Amino acid sequence: MKAHDGMYIGGSWRPAAGTDVIEVLNPATEEPIGQVPAGTAEDVDAAVRAARAAFDDWAATAPADRAAKLTALRDRLVARKDEIAETVTAELGAPPAFAQAVHAGLPAIVAGSFAELAASHDFEQRIANSVVHLEPVGVVGAITPWNYPLHQVVAKVAPALAAGCTVVLKPAEDTPLVAQLFAECVDEAGLPAGVFNLVTGHGPVVGRAIAEHDGVDMVSFTGSTAVGSEIGALAGAAVKRVSLELGGKSANVVLPSADLAKAVNIGVANVMGNSGQTCTAWTRMLVHTDRYDEAVALAEAAIAKYVPGERIGPLVSARQRDRVRGYIEKGVEEGARLVAGGPDAPLERGYYVRPTLFADVAPGMTIEQEEIFGPVLAMIRYADEDEALAIANGTAYGLSGAVWGEEAEATAFARRMRTGMVDINGGTFNPLAPFGGYKKSGVGRELGVHGLGEFLEAKSLQY
Ligand code: NAD
User: Fold this and answer.
1) pLDDT tens for residues 405-437?
2) Are residues 206 and 85 in the same domain?
3) Measured between alpha carbons, how far is residue 254 from residues 182, 283, 288, 348, 377 in Å?
4) Looking at ligand 1, which residue's alpha carbon is closest to its atom 14?
5) Which structural domain, as residue segments, surrounds residue 397?
6) Does 173 sit in the ligand 1 pocket, CB within 6 Å?
7) How many domains does the chain have?
8) pLDDT tens, 227-246?
9) pTM of the predicted model, to two decimals?
10) Residue 435 lies in a domain
């Protein structure tokens, strides 16, 4: 893997202020594949200065010109999709087909969607005797995780640039190589110097320096609820805008009228995708007691197809693997029934975890309440709809979910769920629909017109 030994600041690769590095490992082989600089507050300061210096001109650029630059960026992401997919396979461990379709494919779609929105959005609206101008919020600090490493970058950077903001990005420590590749694409697309800046490094150093910097007007964060809450507190104290995309523990509710085999098969696939490292994963499957045993048998058969090293990749790091194994042990200790998988390693090398199915999971168990972020599905039985709803809504999170059953009935149930997104009978992911959560799953929305709005201030002029 090609890795830069500097930071992308002010339109060029510059030496980092310090000499520390982050070693990037391939989680399937445990071998090093490259290293990037571990930045410092000094690097962040240089990047914020570059972003501030670029802000006035970029904010004043006509939306159609910003759209043209975003289209050029989209084209670079498309042109380099094979390298992107290979890089994500190498540093995250995603199987090649999934890396191509999702990790490389989705960011290009999202970049294209914000090019179109930049061109078509009404940045000037009339309300009675006022004209409301929607203006960029300023310099955005973006802090992203490793699980969809390019998508999460593009879901922040593309709307920020479409709005007329400039950006300082800190990608996750485990997956900085695809972020460097993204910076190359930005450069090739001809974005003005300083509009996008990249500082690699550790969260508590670089991430914190971004969140605390006076020159940053908004922090857009995706990651764990624990870190999101710290960033929210810092931003609140400084009266900065903040958007937080955090964890989830989403419910997949199979109503008695559902097509059971379809609901269970798609439900299992949803959890196993990306080795369970998806914040929106439907990690709790709720099935009516009359069809519960049949559903467990179907899930057991479905999960057997996820062979580690073939259809399912490793977890991103030894730390994540150990954390997930710890949860599997906890599930057994607390009395859930282990139907498939378990805590032992499936392969000699690589950070693999066995695809794991727990049945007879009771509401309130640790594996029912906490985000595991691995290939672990908890099956829960319910007696009636009210009980199913109480279980579905019974965690601190509210990010996503699914309901299966007769459409009107499923829709009515979905409307009662305290969660940001619900797929009805397998409705597919919509990159233009608002993405984000209720409760401890976050603050704000990404993607589409709602995502663009996060990066805009409203100024009203009265006549
Ligand atoms: P994390 O919170 O540890 O890290 C996320 C990012 O924050 C990384 O870039 C990290 O370096 C940085 N960071 C860590 N400590 C920091 C600090 N003190 N100050 C500033 N920045 C800091 O999370 P992770 O382990 O990278 O990702 C997994 C978690 O992210 C899961 O809980 C998952 O649900 C959540 N997630 C949520 C979404 C969403 O859209 N809702 C998407 C992906 C992941």
Assistant:
1) 999 999 999 999 999 999 999 999 999 999 999
2) yes
3) 40, 13, 7, 37, 14
4) 203
5) 251-430
6) yes
7) 2
8) 999 999 999 999 999 999 99
9) 0.97
10) no
